[in-house]
Design goal:
single chain; mainly beta; OB fold (Dihydrolipoamide Acetyltransferase, E2P); 34% strand
């Protein structure tokens, strides 16, 4: 007879402070060897902001109480990450970095709690609804963060069109209709693939 599934002990449920989204896999799961088919989103919280520091301290205390090791805590000190690998993690200096994951697709809403028309991306600004739960695999213990929902407050993700300057009034808007010889659109080289441009 199979063992009964262990009940997850939730020790904290709530909303994170405001921060920048990193590695946002919220519209489709991350199927890489690291993502393991889960939805996930990390968040950078600026250090020195009382609300952010208090939230980080709370998570670290809960992880320690669950006998978790420092390297498995779901919120990391960005300064220490940068010290270990400046080239890879230098962008996290001055921040707390937390990561939340889920097997289920998280709900995405805007500042007025309306469903998002377009998914949030890495670089955008907002908050996460998370639940911290204790885990014990025998070899490892501590807490993990489950991602329940995401609230987008400001779109900040870089776009390819951001590389261009606004040319002002010197040139007008392009209002011409696209033309194809004899209605033949076989020369269309648009990307029919499934790549949405968000590789992170």
């Amino acid at each position: 007879m199979a063992e009964a599934k262990k009940k997850v002990k939730v020790v904290l449920k709530g909303v994170t402070p405001k921060g920048v989204f990193v590695w946002a896999w919220v519209d489709k799961p991350d199927n890489s060897e690291y993502g393991k088919g889960k939805y996930k989103c990390a968040q950078k919280l600026e250090k020195g902001v009382p609300e952010n520091d208090a939230f980080a301290r709370k998570l670290r205390e809960l992880h320690k109480a669950a006998k978790g090791k420092a390297d498995t805590c779901p919120i990391k000190d960005g300064d220490k990450l940068a010290e270990d690998n400046e080239e890879k993690n230098g962008k996290f200096r001055g921040f707390w970095l937390l990561t939340a994951k889920s097997k289920n697709k998280p709900e995405q809403i805007d500042a007025k709690k309306n469903p998002l028309k377009a998914t949030a991306k890495s670089g955008d600004f907002g908050r996460l609804s998370v639940a911290a739960a204790e885990f014990d695999t025998g070899a490892n213990k501590g807490i993990t963060l489950y991602l329940n929902a995401l609230q987008l407050l400001e779109r900040r993700a870089a776009s390819a069109v951001d590389d261009f300057d606004d040319e002002g009034d010197e040139y007008g808007e392009d209002k011409a209709a696209a033309e194809t010889p004899d209605g033949d659109d076989s020369g269309d080289d648009s990307n029919d693939g499934d790549d949405d441009g968000d590789a992170f």
